[in-house]
Task: inverse folding
């Protein structure tokens, strides 16, 4: 190869970077003076940079080998099915963020580092929204503390007796908010922004008998994290990104530089084993957070076996049952994870081969009030094939198998179910792993826990009673007997009390969703600011208050998206919602209307929504046009609007 290409090649191979102009000119000059290439190569490899890079590569290989053999990552991928490209990240921070950048680039992440201090005098970088999927901000602790201390020296103030640390904390909290506000003002609309938590120093600084949790740097940094989280929740356009639990999972011994440098340096090491793991999991958590915001492939229903799954052993074979012997250890942790998933709004169900009556009694005997059968929206205990019982659970919950997770200790039962439902996700094998997966997998996370989340199980149980009654009555008479009432809300900004639930319904609905579009919080707020608004319908009948169950996105004369909760299919709520939407749009001067439909492969339930209400499809497009208001269901009473 030509000399120029040779120099470029050895720089990449032995320094891991492109040749700089000075270095390239130096070696080209030596080659021109008669140096052989072997001598040039030897000279380059003797340089301090080459020796450092060789050491780094050896460490990287050792770390990679060890990581393949040892401790599993904190963030599980057991439930992941959709291979998606890694998000494009704009990383804002000082040199302290370079370790994260290096790991990201080594693992193929499309990340760009913008050098940005956390001072108020600095102007944030201009970030092109079409080039990135998210922004990750690493604030500099020393800068925040420096602005809070007279003289600007924020390194050792916490050990000065002449400084009031309470006043410093108040100043630091104020400066933190100012810095965050300054950064957010310059962020592109619709781009999710994540603020990394500050690394919290170890509490043991003032000695064994010192008051380490009171008026200390440890307490101050924790207060900064608390304030950062609260401020981001209140403004609703960015997110607090916790990383201290990842540190705790792997340990700080060689990762956190507070043991070697000083506590306010606030840095991790990318060349240590633990530092490598921590940065890797920060990236994995960021990717998972993006999945959660987009509601990509979530788990909405967990179906669990009982014997050797929710408790140790087969209770029917026990002569005497001592509860703690069957629930202590991993079963108690598994139950804890199930209840946390229920709090997040995930439905729970039981599918077990057993005699129902005795098994219900044993369940109560074992779990008492800690875990109750009422926590499960469906309990199927019999000797039928488990695939048949799961079919009944899916029918009751009106759930697609794509969003269900089946957990059973017996691989044969797993195989029988997956033959009937290839789309269903499953867990088996090591039961100590189940709790971890349920608590940490992105597929079981939610962007926000709403009021409806805690009521979801009771609402499905009410649906079972309602559906059972429908089987014994004439349909028209049954609909009239429901005493169904809809109350409408007009949502024009994120300050509305039902905004969070509306966004949740929009992003978690698949079957009755006319376009399938997902919305981030920032995207929705920008859409509302552009003149759009949400018409939300809350439903209540004599069985239950169902909360917010239907939503239409309206702008101008367009109905851009309609969604309906699967819990209320077949009641005509979508028709009443459309009637109200058209009525309100007519009040704003519109006489013709445009609806949108995009087939997603999962939304066949609403394929006929527009033609059934008198809309006609525009040739060759996804648009449906109409001008006549359809008849409102006579069995539904509408209020509000």
Result:
């Amino acid at each position: 190869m030509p000399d120029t290409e040779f120099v470029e090649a050895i720089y990449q191979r032995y320094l891991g970077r492109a040749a700089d102009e000075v270095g390239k000119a130096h070696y080209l000059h030596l080659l021109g003076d008669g140096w052989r290439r072997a001598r040039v190569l030897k000279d380059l490899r003797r340089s301090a940079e080459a020796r450092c890079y060789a050491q780094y590569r050896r460490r990287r290989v050792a770390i990679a080998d060890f990581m393949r053999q040892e401790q599993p990552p904190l963030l599980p991928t057991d439930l992941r099915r959709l291979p998606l490209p890694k998000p494009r990240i704009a990383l804002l921070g000082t040199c302290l963020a370079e370790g994260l950048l290096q790991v990201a680039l080594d693992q193929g992440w499309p990340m760009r580092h913008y050098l940005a201090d956390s001072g108020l005098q600095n102007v944030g970088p201009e970030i092109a929204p079409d080039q990135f999927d998210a922004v990750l901000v690493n604030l500099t602790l020393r800068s925040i503390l420096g602005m809070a201390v007279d003289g600007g020296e924020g390194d050792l103030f916490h050990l000065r007796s002449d400084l009031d640390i309470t006043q410093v904390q108040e100043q630091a909290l104020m400066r933190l908010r100012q810095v965050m506000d300054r950064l957010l003002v310059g962020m592109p609309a619709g781009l999710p922004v994540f603020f990394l938590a500050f690394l919290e120093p170890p509490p043991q600084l003032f000695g064994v008998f010192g008051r380490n949790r009171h008026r200390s740097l440890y307490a101050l940094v924790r207060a900064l994290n608390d304030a950062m989280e609260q401020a981001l929740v209140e403004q609703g356009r960015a997110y607090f990104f916790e990383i201290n639990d990842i540190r705790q999972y792997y340990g700080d011994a060689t990762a956190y530089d507070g043991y070697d440098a000083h506590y306010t340096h606030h840095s991790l090491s990318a060349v240590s084993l633990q530092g490598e793991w921590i940065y890797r999991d920060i990236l994995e958590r960021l990717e998972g957070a993006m999945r959660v915001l987009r509601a990509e492939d979530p788990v909405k229903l967990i179906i669990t076996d009982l014997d050797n799954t929710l408790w140790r052993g087969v209770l029917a074979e026990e002569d005497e049952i001592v509860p703690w012997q069957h629930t202590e250890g991993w079963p108690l942790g598994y139950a804890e994870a199930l209840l946390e998933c229920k709090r997040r709004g995930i439905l729970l169900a039981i599918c077990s081969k057993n005699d129902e009556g005795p098994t219900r009694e044993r369940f109560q005997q074992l779990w008492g009030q800690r875990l109750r059968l009422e926590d499960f929206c469906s309990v199927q205990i019999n000797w039928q094939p488990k695939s048949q019982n799961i079919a009944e659970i899916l029918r009751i919950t009106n759930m697609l198998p794509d969003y269900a997770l089946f957990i059973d200790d017996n691989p044969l039962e797993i195989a029988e179910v997956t033959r009937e439902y290839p789309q269903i996700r499953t867990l088996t094998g090591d039961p100590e792993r189940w709790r971890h997966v349920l608590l940490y997998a992105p597929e079981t996370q939610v962007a926000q826990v709403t009021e409806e989340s805690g009521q979801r199980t009771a609402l499905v149980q009410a649906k079972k009673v309602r559906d059972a009654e429908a089987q014994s009555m004439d349909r028209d008479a049954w609909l009239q007997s429901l005493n169904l009432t809809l109350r409408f809300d007009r949502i024009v900004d994120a300050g509305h009390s039902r905004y969070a639930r509306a966004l949740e319904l929009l992003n978690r609905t698949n079957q009755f969703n006319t376009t399938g579009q997902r919305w981030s919080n920032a995207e929705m707020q920008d859409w509302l600011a552009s003149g759009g608004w949400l018409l939300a319908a809350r439903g209540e009948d004599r069985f239950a208050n169902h909360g917010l169950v239907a939503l239409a996105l309206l702008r101008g004369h367009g109905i851009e998206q309609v969604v309906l909760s699967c819990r209320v299919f077949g009641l005509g709520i979508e028709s009443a919602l459309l009637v109200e939407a058209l009525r309100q749009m007519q009040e704003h001067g519109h006489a013709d209307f445009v609806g949108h439909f995009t087939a997603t492969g999962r939304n066949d339930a609403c394929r006929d929504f527009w033609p059934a209400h008198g809309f006609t499809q525009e040739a060759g497009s996804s648009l449906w046009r109409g001008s006549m208001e359809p008849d409102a269901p006579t069995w539904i009473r509408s209020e509000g609007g």
Summary: The radius of gyration is 30 Å. The first helix runs from residue 3 to 15. The chain has 22 helices and 18 strands.
